[in-house]
Write a structure and sequence with these properties.
18 strands, alpha+beta, His_kinase_dom, histidine kinase, single chain, Beta-Lactamase, binds adenosine-5'-diphosphate, kinase, EC 2.7.13.3, Heat Shock Protein 90, ATP-binding
Length: 541
Amino acid sequence: MQPAAESARCDNRMITDAQQVLAVAPLAYVAIDAAGDVVAWNRGARDVFGHRGDEVCGRDLADLIIPPRFRPAHRAALARLAAGGPGTVLGKRLNLFAVHADGHEFPIEMVLAATSEPGGPLFHAFAQDVTIAQRVSRFAAVEAAVARGLIEAGSSHAAAARVAEAVGANMGWKVTELWLADDDRRLLCCTARHAATGQRLGAFAVDELELGVGLPGRVHQRAGAVWIPDLAADKVSFRSRAAATIGLHVAVGVPVSAAGHALGALCVYGDHIEDPEDTLTALLAGIAAQVGQYLERRRSEELAVELARTRNEFLALVTHEIRNPLAVITAATSLLDEDLETFTVTEQREQLRTIARSAQRLSVIAEDLLDLARLESGNLALQLADTNLTAIIHEAVQAVRPTAEDKRQTVRVDVPENIEVYADPYRIRQVADNLLSNAVKYTPGGGTITVTAAVTPTDITWTVADDGIGIPAADRPHLFRRFYRASSAVERRIPGTGLGLVITRTIVERHRGTITLDDTITRGTAFVVRLPIAAPPAENG
Ligand code: ADP
């Protein structure tokens, strides 16, 4: 209690009644007596706690604004003060929780003072709602933790884990997930998941989702934020149901994007949301933008490495695949030059055929390299027309038959008649040739090559399978990279450039189709091409 001499009223004409000043003060002012009953309650208190002064006078403050779990401590402290005990809480800034008239709990900052009145001691509390201030510092802490995590992480994977942890731990979310689309943009993969201690996950913990599925799928597809205020009521999503069964009630997701395209989604799940929708979405969007920029930066670093690697591989290709036929041509021509007279006509023809085969091989490589260059510069134009896929498949099979017969291979074709697609027939033939010639090349003598196709109202699935040398699992993710050759081919010294599949995939994708490796087969290799029947977007010329 302040001695009167330490405070001063400088001009008695200015302020007549201190209670009037308190009544209009912007802070909440509440006074209670030794029993804890309210004796003063200003307009600021009404604004902060939601109760009107006339409703609260004479009522126990604990019942009005103190969360039930803190009431015993409050009453004990008040009893100590009223009994003249040491006032350790007086005059200090206290950070407490209060309950609003509408039932929600919120943080307050409060200073307590005491006066001695004729009727006994009075305790005066000056309080303000610090929800916004706390939110600002909490958000700043999350942003700083995310920025630190991104700087310190040594890989994209580690960075994703640090982001999920920074958001989950600082914001108190039960589950935080970062989902990214795979390179083919056909699946979303959960790159990082942070769960609060003790949080069960059960069927909720899936690691892959198809595009458009679940909250991450929806966010990625819409490239916009999505709120699910009541997971249990979200009947469309199996993941929402799984979330509800492990005690998660609300969820928010924002897209992670870079350079205008959606890369994935940052999603948080919890039992309630404290912050207003737009504020929280803005925070998460800011974090997602940091993640997007980081991933883009990493990607360009990876591309630079890839470029350097490609250059090396190109050199290797030049040395092996181009030098060999050139050496054969040089040797055959000098042989003919030196010993022409000693060769019979048949032997001369044999040498000429050797030269022609090597020249042919070189022109295939040159053509592939040119195609690849056109594809990569975006200059490969499709000449779209109504195309009979069945006929193209049969022609391509006819073209490989002589080689297949030389190797005593069986080529089976089971394709419906007259499959029509709107496509570039020359390029589709190139796809058929590449897949079939690979199947023949990578299948030992006596093996079987099977071509099948099935048609649905929307697309065509076309499979080229063989029971040949197969592709080891470790090589599969890299197969569609320029110059990449699987260890199974390199070890057996089967010639090739590693260009065919890249070209094939680009052609298929330009037709808005997909090409994948069937992972379910146990022997050999099967490539599955899916082409939409409807026309691809205008791309003539
Ligand atoms: P290339 O056959 O000229 O090396 P591709 O781009 O057509 O180049 O194929 C890339 C690699 O994929 C091949 O080197 C080979 O390792 C593997 N591959 C492609 N098709 C098959 C197949 N049917 N069976 C086994 N491996 C294959």
